[in-house]
Amino acid sequence: MSPAEWRHRMKNDVLTKEFFSDDERYADLINGLGCDGKQIVRKEDLQELDTQTGIWKSSFQGKNRRRKMRDRDLVRRTAFGVNFAVIGIENQEVIDYALPLRNMSYDVSEYEKQAARIKKEVRKDSSGLNPGEYLYGFKKDSKLHPVVTFVLYYGKEEWNGALDLHSIIDFEGIPDEIKKLVQNFKVHVVEVRKLKDTSMFQTDVRQVFDIIRYSEDPEKLKKLMKNDAAYQNMEEDAYDMVASYTHAEELISMKDLHKKRGGKVDMCGAIAGLIAEGKLEGKIEGEECKLVKQVCKKLKKNKSVETIAEELEEEQEKIQSICEAAKEYAPEFDCEKVYQTWKERYKLL
């Protein structure tokens, strides 16, 4: 990874944290992803927590105290009546193949933090405690609060990493009787660019996610913005997040031109400006032309539509349309001619 790419990802991380630091959006995300769109959590139900997880560890004699720290992106104490859960958000732009292990460490650290608080309270009054309760600082009726972590993945590459702990454990030669005793841990990955529906969101989370997932399709973007007036009055932090995650740096330079009173920004006008200037189409055209070249190379090797779609991690329907356009140019498969035919016949641009 180049220094420029690293800086860009760090910028995205900061912008996403700023965007979701708004409790109304945080509650909307919990309701949309965790409550099937039901409006259960309100912004008033949230309390910001320390993103550094971990507890102080001491030696047997109480010396050499140390704290193993783990930094989370965002975490909130979320009230549900008289009870509460701890719900975290992790932002991901590249695939972490050890994600189950990392997320498990986050959740375990939070449970350890809760247990440490319980232990402190238990030790304040040792009367009536049985030996086990006093020794471990945890009563028979002590309870921990649930911990949930949502991973928002913004990468273009389809997520092919592990979604549970068992997927990264080598069970070869291990008897099934032993394997079933190994506890599993699942992770909740949300591929933002692959979301089929965003109607479960009630705030500008929906608009931001929609622009990101349609960022490579100008026609869909125009249709989307035409039917939703919210794009004409976006919050500045939402605008900045979209501009960064879609790699449309021109949007940043155009922001001041489309600012309104109160700090709102007309994203619709800015996107329309890019499309009118041909900058957005030019960006997409380059990416689509590259895809056609890749498909043509694989067609020369007599690979099937299904195989090509799988290897390029693209929708089969899209690859099928390119292959149909390429038929008349076999066996040489002139890439430029294939691209022009595909573009005209299927009106993808």
Structure commentary:
The protein has 349 residues and is of the alpha/beta class. It folds into three domains: 3-193, no CATH class; 204-277, no CATH class; 281-346. It is built from 14 helices and nine strands. The strands form three sheets. The protein has a five-stranded mixed beta sheet, sandwiched between helices. It has a two-stranded antiparallel ribbon with strand order 2-5. It has a two-stranded antiparallel ribbon with strand order 3-4. Helix 6 (205-213) packs parallel to helix 8.
Task: Record the SSE blueprint.
Elements: H1 3-20, H2 23-34, E1 46-48, E2 52-53, E3 56-57, E4 66-67, E5 70-71, E6 74-80, E7 83-92, H3 99-124, H4 131-136, E8 147-153, H5 176-179, E9 188-191, H6 205-213, H7 218-226, H8 236-245, H9 249-254, H10 267-277, H11 279-299, H12 305-312, H13 316-326, H14 335-346
Parallel strand pairs: 7-8, 8-9
Antiparallel strand pairs: 1-6, 2-5, 3-4, 6-7
Helix pairs in contact: 1-8, 6-8, 7-10, 11-13, 11-14, 12-13, 13-14
